[in-house]
Every structure is written in structure tokens, then in C-alpha cells.
Design a protein that fits this description.
Blueprint (H helix, E strand, L loop, with lengths): L1 E5 L3 H12 L3 E5 L3 H8 L10 H10 L3 E4 L2 H6 L3 E4 L15 H13 L4 E5 L7 H12 L5 E5 L9 H6 L4 E5 L3 H9 L10 E4 L1 H32 L3 H9 L20 H14 L5 H25 L7 E5 L14 H11 L3 E5 L4 H4 L6 E3 L3 H5 L4 E4 L11 H7 L4 E4 L6 H6 L3 E3 L8 H9 L1
Parallel strand pairs: 1-2, 1-4, 2-3, 4-5, 5-6, 7-8, 9-10, 9-12, 10-11, 12-13, 13-14
Antiparallel strand pairs: 6-7
Length: 447
């Protein structure tokens, strides 16, 4: 099948590369000529494990092409995916759909035969209706139908998620689209990936509801973590205990500094605005958004309290800047609020991230970026683990203790244990755990 993917950002590039890997002939279109030139040269603009190899393999086989010529790509395609950005609109938090609508007009002008136009971008309920209206108004003779096919890709695991999805949600209001969409995803039949066909508006809402629920789950365990610290419980044991309940599940129950990234912050906010506009406010999601914003700032205060009464002039070294491991994405990362809070208190901030160093230059000012954890730790008064990269899970604490001004680790991801850190001579602060490890206390009591 010939497919065009409009937008070569994270979702578009991953989707296009994976569809080509299935054997489809895919043309990825982007208005950014520099990005297209880089992709043609084999340079991937984002970090996503496995993506570079898939792009290279399918480009060599001529199954994956890159171009700035939208008209030509659409004219030859049976299915056209819209995969452009829908950032939060400045000022009111609604999803900015201007890119989606601009692309819809361009697609309309290029349709010459029956074409299925698929919205892959995350869009509010009713966007498909507007895309259909725009295309029909722009080209009354066009033979087409509009489909909602939201993405559920986790950054850092996007290839696996696309090829072995939990479900593929397809929203249609025209039965002609069913056969086309079934053929698009036919290569996944061996994996028994369930195709969930719904009405188009329902599909659009499924995406937002899923992200909002996961964001709420993260926020729930973060609040429980605060209670655990207050009463002397261990949030990891609490999370394990409730996660064994199949109705709850263990995923997204890891306490930390709050959620970030390209999806949860903007999608929860957009859902809140949609609900308010329709007179059906979502109080749980409104509270989730507020709590998460507050938590990121609270993490800077947690670090400051661990250092002492005054952090002015102190040096703080941050391990990790991206919102999660295995990505270079810093959008709405908790690290941003932590850096700002520490700088507001007069601290000198250093940082290292395995993949986010280049992106950090566009987000941070006044931060010294180092080559590795040991370089930024030299002379530091505190080491703060912000993002749980694998490279930070087995640090050489003997080496760190020699170079640091004060042996203090603030572990915002609970990667280490207090008793282990004590053996290394480090003062240790974590999230949602008692001031003394329960295992140590029980061992002492038994003796």
C-alpha cells in the first residue's frame, strides 16, 4: 500500500518508518527542508532506540522516502496520515490545531482519487469533523473519508509499541475506511494486535482519556509518597502491595518528581479545557494538573532542605535532564522546574544527561553542562538523581565521595537504598521512604 505521512516529527517519523518496515511504500513529508535533507542523509533528528536502523534499512530498500513535496506524495497515496504537532495554545491551554488544519487544506487540494485521511496527531474531540469540513470546503469534488487513529507510543519504547501494540484504535464515520485501515495494519495480525473500531469522536476521546488516567495514576502515587514520608511508610512497598491487585496494576506507580514530556502535560490540559467548554468539568484531571505542577517546584525545595538552611552559593549536580530515560526530550521535564528553583535560591547548578545535552542548551541558562557524572560532581554539595538512566544505576560512590564537597545524594527516583548509601558514607534522601530503611530497623530489632 502507498502511504503518505505528513509531519516528520516524533510520531510521524516513527509511524512512517514502522509502516515501511511492514512492507508498505511510505513517503514522509515535512515543510522543514533542513530536516528532510538531514533525513535523506541518514541523520535522525530525535533520539529513539532502534529508529536510526529502521530508517536506514527501509530508505535503502526505497520503501521509505522523504520529501517536502506534499502534493506529489498525497496524489499517489491511498492513505494519508496527519502527524503534525498539536502543542498547547499559548494563553489558554487549548490544543493548537492550526498545523492540523493547514495540512488538511493542503491535502484537500492534492486529492485526485478516493483517499483515506487519518489523523494520527493527538487532537480534541470533534477535530475530525472540522478536518472533514475543511477538505470538503477546499475541494468539493474530493472523494475521501477522515479517520481518527491516535498513537499510543512511549518515548524510548516507540518501535516496540508500534509493532506490538496493546490495541489499535480506529475511529470511522464512513464504512469505506474500514477495509483501508485493516489493510494498513494487516502485517500486525500475526501478533494478534486488536483493532478497535469506534466512532470517530469516541476514538479521539480514548486517546485523551488514556493519557489523563495514567497522569492521574502517577500523581496519585506521588501524593501517597508524601504521606509515606510523613508517617514512616515505604511508598515502594505500598505501590507493590496495591499493584498486585489486577484491577490496579503495577505500571505507573513509581513515585518521583512528577510527569513531563510531550504528551501528558499538554494532553491533560487540553482535556480539561475541552471538558470546561462542554459544561462537563473534569475535577480529578484539573487537580492532577495542579498537583503535578506544584510537585516539580516542591522537588527543588526538597533538594534545598537536604543541603541545609541556605543554598546560596552551593553547588548542586543534577544527574538527568530529560523527562524520562531513553529519549532526548526535555519538554516539561521536572528537571526544568528543579533547576529554576535551585537557581532562584542562589545555587550553582551543573548537569549531565546521556542524550539530552544538546537539547538542554535550548532550555537552560546559567547551568554548567559536564561530560559525565564525575565531572559535574567535583566540588558539589549535593548530587541529585533526576532521571533514572541505566548509566546512573551503578555509580562509583567511592570516586564520587573523593571529588564532592559533601557526600549527599538526593535520589528523586528511588534507584538506591539508604543502607547501601550509608556504607559508602553518603547522606541519602529519597522519595516516599522512611528516614531509616525498614529492613535495617527490622534487622536491628531482631538482634
Amino acid at each position: 500500500m502507498r502511504i503518505a505521512v505528513i509531519g516528520s516529527g516524533y510520531v510521524g517519523l516513527v509511524s512512517g518508518a514502522c509502516l515501511a518496515d511492514f512492507g508498505h511504500e511510505v513517503t514522509c513529508v515535512d515543510s522543514n527542508a533542513e530536516k528532510i535533507a538531514a533525513l535523506k542523509a541518514g541523520k535522525i533528528p530525535i533520539f529513539e532506540p532502534g529508529l536510526e536502523q529502521i530508517v536506514a534499512t527501509n530508505a535503502r530498500a526505497n520503501r521509505l522516502l522523504f520529501t517536502t513535496e506534499l502534493e506529489e506524495a498525497v496524489r499517489s497515496a491511498e492513505a494519508v496520515f496527519i502527524a503534525v504537532g498539536t502543542p498547547s495554545r499559548r494563553g489558554d491551554g487549548h490544543a493548537d490545531l492550526s498545523y492540523v488544519y493547514d495540512v488538511a487544506r493542503s491535502i484537500a487540494a492534492s486529492i485526485t482519487r478516493f483517499t483515506v485521511v487519518i489523523t494520527k496527531s493527538t487532537v480534541p474531540v470533534g477535530t475530525g469533523d472540522e478536518v472533514e469540513r475543511i477538505i470538503r470546503e477546499t475541494n468539493p469534488a474530493a472523494d475521501f473519508c477522515v479517520v481518527s487513529n491516535p498513537e499510543f507510543l512511549r518515548e524510548g519504547a516507540a518501535i516496540e509499541d508500534f509493532k506490538r501494540p496493546d490495541r489499535i484504535v480506529i475511529g470511522i464515520d464512513d464504512e469505506r475506511a474500514r477495509a483501508v485501515m485493516t489493510e494498513v495494519y494487516r502485517p500486525l495480525y500475526l501478533n494478534k494486535a486488536p483493532l478497535v473500531f469506534t466512532a470517530r469522536r469516541t476514538s479521539e476521546l480514548i486517546k485523551y482519556a488514556a493519557n489523563a488516567f495514567l497522569a492521574m495514576k502517577i500523581t496519585f502515587i506521588n501524593e501517597i509518597a508524601d504521606l509515606c514520608e510523613a508517617v514512616g511508610s515505604d511508598v515502594q512497598d505500598v505501590a507493590h502491595g496495591i499493584g498486585l491487585d489486577n484491577r490496579i496494576g503495577s505500571k505507573f506507580l513509581h513515585a518521583g518528581p512528577g510527569y513531563g514530556g510531550s504528551c501528558f502535560p499538554k494532553d491533560t490540559l487540553a482535556l480539561v479545557k475541552t471538558a470546561q467548554d462542554n459544561g462537563a468539568p473534569l475535577r480529578l484531571i484539573e487537580t492532577t494538573v495542579a498537583i503535578n505542577d506544584q510537585r516539580k517546584r516542591a522537588m527543588a525545595r526538597k533538594v534545598a532542605r537536604a543541603i541545609g538552611p541556605d543554598i546560596h552559593g552551593k553547588t548542586v549536580a543534577l544527574l538527568g535532564l530529560t523527562f524520562k530515560p531513553n529519549t532526548d526530550d526535555m519538554r516539561d521535564s521536572p528537571a526544568l522546574a528543579i533547576v529554576q528553583g535551585l537557581q532562584d535560591g542562589g545555587a550553582n547548578v551543573r548537569a549531565f544527561d546521556p542524550e539530552g545535552m544538546e537539547a538542554a542548551k535550548g532550555y537552560l541558562t546559567g547551568v554548567t553542562l559536564g561530560a559525565d557524572p564525575y565531572a559535574i560532581a567535583e566540588g558539589a554539595d549535593a548530587l541529585v538523581l533526576v532521571t533514572e538512566w541505566d548509566a546512573f544505576r551503578a555509580l562509583d560512590f567511592a570516586r564520587l565521595k573523593k571529588v564532592m564537597n559533601e557526600p549527599l545524594l538526593v535520589d528523586l527516583r528511588n534507584v538506591y537504598r539508604r543502607d547501601v548509601m550509608a556504607r559508602h558514607g553518603f547522606r541519602y534522601v529519597s522519595v516516599g521512604r522512611p528516614k531509616q530503611d525498614i529492613s535495617v530497623a527490622l534487622s536491628s530489632a531482631a538482634e
